[in-house]
Amino acid sequence: MNLENSIKDVISKKLEDGSIEKLIEEQLEKGVKNALDHMFGSYGDVTKIIETQIKSVMIPYLEKYDYSEYLIKLDNVLVDVLKGTSFENKNMLENFKELMLPEDRKVIKASELFEIWSKYVAKNVETHGLEVNYDDGEPTYEYVEITLDVNYDDKRSWSSFQYATLALECEHDDKMNFALRISHYDRDKENQWDISYDSVKDIGSMRHLNSFEILLMRLSQARTKLIMDIDSESDEITPEKEPEASYS
Fold first, then answer.
1. Rounded CA gap, 109 and 113, in Å?
2. Do 133 and 224 belong together in one domain?
3. Residues 47 and 124 in one domain
4. What is the domain range of residue 139?
5. Is the pLDDT of residue 81 over 80?
6. Its domain of life (predicted)?
7. Are residues 222 and 140 in the same domain?
């Protein structure tokens, strides 16, 4: 009984001097802290709620934000980087810079796209194997034939979309050829088609992009509408490259 009385006396004194209350308070504080750590952790319930609310506010804001000021700054940074980099990386950064520029065209006609491509062909077409003309005094390479053709997919009766492939082909040089998928939604204006084109498979492939590919990608990213004013066209293009004169 003396031991029991001693225990009671100790507990009584600890209650009176507040020691037990302090211990309870410390443990309660630890329990609350642990609970909050769990709730606010990576997979906690409160974290999920906060994340959902932040997304609902930030994503619409970021989508509408005008990044033009930052594109100017980015351009300046890339210019500095380009001064001290290798040719391959320089080409990749140049293409990246072009892709970052916003495309302000809301619509583009198929005939306009064909004209842009024909100028690209004239500048870049392979001239090996072409005959040289001397009719006008100055030697020029013979014409190369180019065509635009749209191949329409069979439309399913239950679908609201019509799909097609727009093919740009150069008979002499198949490296000039391009094919892009286009689609038309029934509720869109007549002859307005969406462009789908993306030739970048990884960051390294950006160094191999040409100017016309970059244009197609920018039109696709900007959701520029393609006005189908033509779905078949052909022309003959004179290469810009000048052959060396030979009057043998």
1. 6
2. yes
3. no
4. 105-237
5. no
6. Bacteria
7. yes
CA gap 88, 51 in Å, rounded: 41
Q: What would the two tokens of residue 48 be?
A: 């999920």
**Residue 245 domain-assigned (yes or no):** no
Residue 41 confidence (pLDDT): 67
The answer to whether position 74 is within a domain reads no
- Residue that is written with structure tokens 């008979």 in the block: 171
Q: Residue 210 has what pLDDT?
A: 86
Higher-confidence position of 133 and 76: 133
- Return the percentage of the chain with pLDDT > 90, whole number: 30
Q: Average of pLDDT values for 69-74?
A: 54
Per the domain annotation, does 84 fall within a domain? no
Residue 104: pLDDT over 90: no
Q: Name the residue type at position 179.
A: A
Residue 222: inside a domain: yes
